[in-house]
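Hello again, I could really use a second opinion on something today. My current little project is about how a certain protein chain folds up. You're getting the sequence in one-letter code plus the fold written as tokens. Here's the protein in full, and shout if anything looks odd to you:
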Amino acid sequence: MAHRPLMTHPATLAGLGAAALGVTALVVSIRARQAEKDNPPTGRLIDVDGVRVHYAELGRGEPLVLLHGNGSMLQDFMSSGFVREAAKSYRVIAFDRPGYGYSDRPRSTIWTPAAQAELLRSALHQIGVARALVLGHSWGASVAIALALDHPEMVRGLILESGYYYASVRADVVLMSGPAVPLVGDILRYTVSPPVARLMWPAMIRKLFSPAPVAATFAGVPSEMAIRPSQLRASAAESALMIPDAVAVQGRYGELEMPIAIVAGSGDKIVDVDDQAVRLHRELPTSSLHVVEGCGHMVHHTAPRDVMAAVDAVALAA
């Protein structure tokens, strides 16, 4: 007697799929809570207009504000050799930007560089900083520029490291923006995105540092904190905002009148040095350009003294 193949009802398959997603979301949530337990806040938590902001300080002297890049957190700067050097001469203040580390990112706000600059302006006033040197790395450079454009009285000088200043065709932006899409993105970042990000992490970090090797100091950046669902949403949203913001602001660079140092790694695989750093330097004749040979995107880890020299040059010029 022939046996008929077992058929699974579509509703049963859907139920199994939903159950699998539910289990995955539970595991992701547990791992995110464990990451926060293993990596408690290293600095101070303050309330700024109803938004929790986390920052850390080291050293004394003139304030030097540090703004990290997309997908990162303040440990990126605080663990680097650059901060140890800078803290000898400056009051170094590193922020977790909205949605990263332990800073909140309310959905009621579209966190453009200008919106983040406004929040950080209020945070700086709250901790007694009226004027500072501001260093922004990668996406943080856009926030630093927004702060200088909208509140020039607060920015004594700018240090822009590995920034993205001019719009270009970027296929990776579309691929990385998925977790920011409402509903679909929420499902992704609690199910598929964290394990995928965990698998891709080593290769991504090598690309960030290439052509230089990954610096030992980067071990201080907790990867499990970076792939929490909340931080993946922030990172995806900033990927989606990157090109539109460059389009919106690139016509205003001529308004920047404070001393500016533009820092870039000659082998940067994330942003094109000629199309971004060199082009900005040409547009701002009073700026200084510091292209560090043999470096990639993470100059403050690979060549901290070169970044320190750029900071000192801006401080002297100011």
